[in-house]
Amino acid sequence: MPNRRQHLKLSRELLGYCNPLVHDILDTSLPIQEHRRTHTPETCRLMGQLLGNDAKREAWLHIFADYGIVK
What we know:
This protein is mainly α. It has helices at 4-15, 20-27, 41-51, 53-66. It contains four helices and no strands. It starts with a helix and ends in a 5-residue tail after the last helix.
């Protein structure tokens, strides 16, 4: 699983922008949830509503990178 710095670099390289807040939200574990429970289509949808479509795309990229789909 990429670290925060790698996620930001990947976003900059593939999307042309990066928003550290997106990665902070996705990597924050809630007391009642494990890390990957935030890695859902619903979270990406909500990220888009909260921060815009660029953040939604970046959230998907973060999840793909964590699952090894994008390197």
